[in-house]
Write a structure and sequence with these properties.
Layout (H helix, E strand, L loop, with lengths): L5 E2 L1 H6 L9 E4 L2 E4 L10 E2 L2 E2 L23 E5 L2
Parallel strand pairs: 1-6
Antiparallel strand pairs: 2-3, 3-6, 4-5
Length: 79
């Protein structure tokens, strides 16, 4: 398995659908590219914003962490 690149929180924040075309979110230490999801257009998904770690927000969502299995992990969030 190929090692995933690491990205800082600042690098993640730029992929918010506004500053750059990419739309990324982090969950449990992994970064996912959700750019192709119609639910993340313009970097917003209901009250959640792209470019940030959503781990602590999952309890507010109407789904569980299995939703991330629809997306490919493209990186690791640096601690």
């Amino acid at each position: 398995m190929e090692k995933l690149p690491e990205y800082s929180r600042n690098q993640l924040a730029l992929r918010n659908g506004q500053d750059m075309d990419e739309i990324w979110v982090a969950f449990n230490g992994f970064i996912y590219d959700v750019s192709m999801s119609r639910l993340w257009r313009n970097g917003k998904h209901y009250e959640h914003w792209a470019g940030q770690d959503l781990t602590s927000e999952l309890d507010k969502a109407p789904h569980n962490e299995m939703v991330f299995s629809k997306f490919t992990a493209i990186g690791i969030l640096k601690k």
